[in-house]
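Annex B. Sample input.
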Amino acid sequence: MIQNTVNLRSYDAKLCDLSGKSILVTGGTGSFGRSFVAAVIKRFQPEKLIIFSRDELKQFEMAREFSDKDYPVLRYFIGDVRDADRLEMAMRGVDYVVHAAALKQVPAAEYNPFECIRTNVHGAENVVRAAIRSGVKRVIGLSTDKAANPINLYGASKLASDKIFVAANALAGRNGTRFAVVRYGNVIGSRGSVVQVYQHLIDRGIDTLPLTDARMTRFLITLQQGVNVVLSSFAMMEGGEVFVPKIPSIKIIDLAEAMSPNAKVEVIGVRPGEKLHEVMISEDDSRITLQLDDRYVIEPLFNFWSRTAYEERGATRVTEGFRYASDTNDEWLNVEQIRSLLASCGRGYA
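Annex B, continued. Sample output.
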């Protein structure tokens, strides 16, 4: 049963202290990367923070926002995750890596499968190899709800990426680089998100908003929450986990009403590779899933894995057959709560 209640968690009970550390973010000029960089330089005193991305214009624009004079710890490194040698060069002396680079538009991935695989799958392999060879301490890869029970190429490529990151812990050895994954849903204000699409139409004065299906639901998280999940997961990771934050669900039709109460809604049909509802933990994974107050933890299937550290934090096992999906979630945002959340994020939804 849908409940119009929500606990807007901050996920910042214990954040990894990055002061004095060298950090690299792939896809660092993207929505997450910019928010992550802003959070790190505000909260910590890192030795070096490297923005690794392939678009020189976005790096130029980001450097104007975060000037060398005010933020001398920032470094801008042109490169593509498809280029293993360039990645390895960029990771020299790096302690922590956040892998946020990806091709993530579902229709684009369906029509450009080779490009999607090269970036999302081969790129993940390159990040793993470069991190191990460079002696990086900890790496977190950003995943997506579409990686669980995928029906589109983007989701399948991110599932492959997740598996690569989990298996990388065995490749690195007991005392080598530790890898983990953070998986969450739609991010408010990220490039290409439904929130951004709707806002663009509203700004142009268009009074009809497209909706693929009136039944469609999604998980929703803010950029700042996403950053905090990563920072806190760095602090607690043992290596091989998939962290899934507990976040609310929304009906997309409610989002349209929250953003433009007087707009008409035009049902346009489901796009190629699109789901009505998203799953972040499947029934099959329930047997290896723990839960904490603010997140679930999917355990790796390693002989050397021990859940002792999580049991000491109060983690408990979910019931077998548990499924974490946007349509059966027990936390929901209604229209007013969605509107309030968007307002709290600011006009840029940062």
